[in-house]
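Lecture 7, part B: from sequences to assemblies.

Below are the input chains for today's worked example.
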Amino acid sequence: MNWQLPTLFGQTKTVLERVQDTTLPGTAVPQSSIERPETGVTYWFPEQASTFAEGVDDLYMFILWVSTVSFVVIVAAMVYLVFKYRRKGKEIVIEPSSSHNTKLEIAWSVLPSILLVPMFWWGATGYFDSRIPRDDAEEILVTASRYNWLFTYPDGDSSSELHLVRDQPVKLVMQSKDVLHSMYIPAFRQKMDIVPGRYTYAYINPTKLGQYRLSCTEYCGEGHSKMRTVAEVHISNEDRKANTQWIKAEHPPWENGSRLYKIHCSGCHRIDGKAATGPALNLTWGRKGKAHNGDPIEANEQYIKESIEYPDKVVVEGFGPVSKMNSFKGILDQDDISHVIAYLKYLQDPSLVTDSPEAAGSPNEGKSGEAEKPESEDEAVSTEDKEDSDA
Amino acid sequence: MSSEAIRNTFGTPETHFLNHEKGWKSWAFTLDHKRIGIMYLIGVNVALIMAGIFALVLRSHLWSFDGTGPVKLSNEMYNQMFTLHGAVMVFSFIIPSVPAALGNIVLPMMLGAKDVAFPRMNLASFYLWIAGTGCLLAAILSGNGLDTGWTFYTPYSIETETGVIYATFGAFILGFSSIFTGLNFLVTVNTMRAKGQTWFKLPLFLWSLYATSIIQVLATPVLGITLLMLIAEKTMHIGIFDPKYGGDPVLFQHFFWFYSHPAVYIMILPAMGVISELISVYSQKKIFGYSFIAFSSIAIALLGFLVWGHHMFTSGQSQVVTLIFSAITFTVAIPSAVKVFNWLATLYKGSILLSTPMCYALSFIFLFGIGGLTGLFLGALSTDIHLHDTYFVVAHFHFVMVGGTLTALLGGVFHWWPKIFGRMYNDTLGRISCFLVFTGFNLTFFPQFVMGARGMPRRYATYDPEFQIFHQYSTIGAFVLGFGIVMAYSVLLYAAFKGPRCGSNPFRAASLEWQSSSPPDFHNFTHKVVMTDPYDFDTQVYDEELDTYVHRELAQPTKPVEADPQPATH
Amino acid sequence: MAVADSHDTAHDDHHDHGEFIAHHFDSAEQQFDSGKLGIWIFLVTEVLFFSGLFVAYTLWRNHHPEVFEQAHVFLNKYLGGMNTIVLLFSSLTMALAVRSAQLGKNKQCSLYLLITMVCASMFLGVKAVEYSHKWDMGIFVRSAFDFHAGHHAAEPGTLAASLGVSPYLIKLSFIPAILLVGCIVASVIGKMTEKPLLSKFLVGMAVTVGGYFLGVVVGQVFVAATEGGSHASVVSPTEPLMLHAMTSEDGDHQAGDGEEHDHAEGEKHDHADGEIHETHHNEHHDDAHAMDHGPDPSKFDRDIGTFFSIYYCMTGLHAIHIIGGIIALAWLYWRSLAAHWRPDYFGPVDFVGLYWHLVDLIWIYLFPLLYLIE
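Predicted structure of the full complex, as structure tokens:
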């Protein structure tokens, strides 16, 4: 179904010429290079470039066919009835007919609902596929601000385009510096809002090489339509390293975090596994514990952020009921908190925040590696990447 | 008045509500529901014209992908255009359109009543509408405009320096206008029905207005307090929605959609009621499955309160909540489908007259069918993630609100126009206007489904070049649609002043409003209404002398018409 | 203009008195039923209007229970309790007013209405004392929250200083003072120009506004009695704050230990402390560093301000409803003086009464939710 609508007034040629000269704002990527008539573009969709894209498209086509059939039936019935029973002349002639039929009405209330069940079910499973990241996913920090994107990789280097490696799943940890944004990559069928004041997450497992559009879909102001960039899928991690315009970090985030730790946290939190005024921080990341009131806690980004900003909110068992910690809201900003989180990850397992996995491209290895490494509780990655990028 | 004189009013009355008092004061301070309804009709259509012009401007801007088309707007201007288009259309036009304009005129007459229960409140509602719309427009005059989108999402609405306070205060006031109308209708339907008019003898339009009023009364206060909190947040930074002060922007979305999703049903339910009337009258057949249609209105109203979270599937609300909202969203599809099937069944073995209102009603079924079915794509979770905030959504809700509500409004206005003004419109021109609206509308919004599925985000001033062709179709369609609407109202306006006189009931309708003269008397009825089933068209017999249909009992010259015990005081 | 079509209603006897039946109603009964249903629906919208704030309250309390626990001690439950009693009493007199209107006893009705109005303005007077007391301590909404233990001393030589009350209270009392003087003067003029009804009405209004000042005096006495009249009382609410300050100082002493650990354990990262400070140019961090040595209690507990945001929104909106209620009651008072109520026509008293009970009811919820958190 790769057909185009006819062009209006033969404008396409000039459009293409204008496209040649424009580049996307904030990047060096020319407009014309993205999603050009490659294979895989159908009438309804851009390419399928992630693991769950196909499922989304299949569901879409399923609903489309169900809707089209019911719509055609309804309209055909309407046209037929209007034609058959049209008023001829001025006389109003009515054949007697019943004005209700409970059985029929119940039937057409219940039957469509049965069709709705698979749509809901299919949609829900597809949704969880696209929302729950695989355990070996690489973490990339997405920072959205008006009207820029910044993608920070585990080693601290950043880029203004999103660079991924084929078949290497990524978990995007997203934060906003100002207002609401939303990250949308049509080719991956993935979209997630970025909410100031909290972390949101998205998951992608890219399957196809190429450059894809990435845009902001939550209205954010004057430059909203300029807040576009590119997601590029590389064949391997080496390829990504070599062919990306990196914004080198002066220090990796965990190092910044360690400085912040010394200034602000070291008074009460130790990093040798022993509890002091507060819990030991080297055991914190990814820990699943209990609050003093018995609620379960999982130490993820959101929890760490809240604990720093609202220490009294959830107090770990054994340190409550009233936290002895001050709020650091307004003292540590969003970046600082991300650095502290990187440091906590570092303390848990340095490989989490040093370099991205060397042997990416083979998710199976990553998975098996994780299975053999029971000591790291949560955020394990493949065993090969223990090296410290700073060394 | 003698019975013969009353019967003669079914032809053309000498005095009626339009001429029993003259001068601007008799309009500005009137408590007559019909005059208030007409003022509302003028008001909402002025809003429609304004917001329509905004739409044409922004569609012209989108002619070219990089903003080099015939109409060039800066990004700020573009943002203000779509915001004002949305805000004026939603708050000032669609929400009051069918209930406050058509409903006001028709509802008391369908009940055989002299007026709504609280006429002063009714007038207050109209002046609140003017004040609220004025506040919305004051945002433009304040010099900064308004650029938040009609949803006022925080924290952008807190940070922007445009006239958010004017606009939110305007929406707040419009909310009260809407509550007044809803409260009035609820009480009127409950206490002022004609003798013998049981709930199941109400025309279906009243059921849908009743359901609508329930939503207006229950949901609008929540919007009111939300907007007040937003104003407090913006002026004093109370820290409830503003993340800078520890607030939660997603909470605002919950509050906002708790109103604004039911508001979608405020827009569509009365339209469905109009369609039920039109289909039945122009098929001359009792509506099929009366109770199913009636209860589906109530079901939609109640279910509408439980699905607001489906606007927020990508907002970061919890995944379990998302799942639940998706499931409930699918259930709303069912009562809507039931209505469509019942309308089709009503056509069966009818005597269908394809006059202008019927054309609008049939195009409603077509367009609302597309609008409703594309809702399934957005209710299913995984496809919604892809389609959310793209042109697919834009197309979907325009199919429901314009293809649904606007079409039904036009159909309803054509249907009741001869009742209001006692003059007939030109049917051929009316049908041409319907054809233009229908084709223009489809040309505008159908390409947007394709754009959306291909990944074109909404609210973009400049866009990716491969979408340009679709945008150009859309822009052409918008002008055709605009021309169609202008033509429809031209036909109507001409008819109101110069159209041929028509009798009290030219369409052989059976609901009570057709027992009054056209135009109706100031007190609506000069005789005691004869209670009848609103869909029993056999009761209406043709009176050659008057050239109109009259109820059997009123037409018999042998049995004198019972004069109203309370004579009208002119 | 119109006369009711009342052939078949129970009120045939009053047919000649149908002056208050609107033309579009068939009977007094239908009119009353419509009004009653209308007011109930209106009350539903009122409840939903407040519900937004209650939901915000619930969510915030759920998210930050600690803020609520710390914040409620700033509220004086004796003042709140007294206001509760005042409002409950006004509900009683309102019910009595409805009863006397039903019986057509207009004089009695006007007296009860007057008591209700006095109670309402007394409530506002106490509220004014409460608000001004808080503003004195810098307890504002979230963004302006700037708590400091102790009052702003009023500038010497001002009215506030000579009366020994908060300058905010003087500002709040400005409009009631004008109203009071205006009512008295106008009623005297009314008397002189022989408009007895108007003059009577204005006397009633003056008494009503007087209720506000009664409330202010009683409120001040209560504050003096329950908080010892001195600023020492304000210390008690600050205990949680003090706790923070102390642990924080402890933290400083321990800081040395912490750093040692860091060195002993963290050999992989080899920067000296000096480097840390050199590389830190961020303003924030400099601030933060200063904070380490002397935390400023007013800063880190600014989240308490969110509690007060909600407190001011809820009680403020409620106060606006009280003011609206007073206006409606004043209208009823005027009509009772004009002896409009009869056994077949007392709807307005009934409807405003229902509204007044709802306003009371909302306060009955607000009081424990805000003042009695434990």
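Note for the exam: Residues 60 and 161 of chain A are 29 Å apart (CA to CA). Keep this in mind when comparing with the next example.
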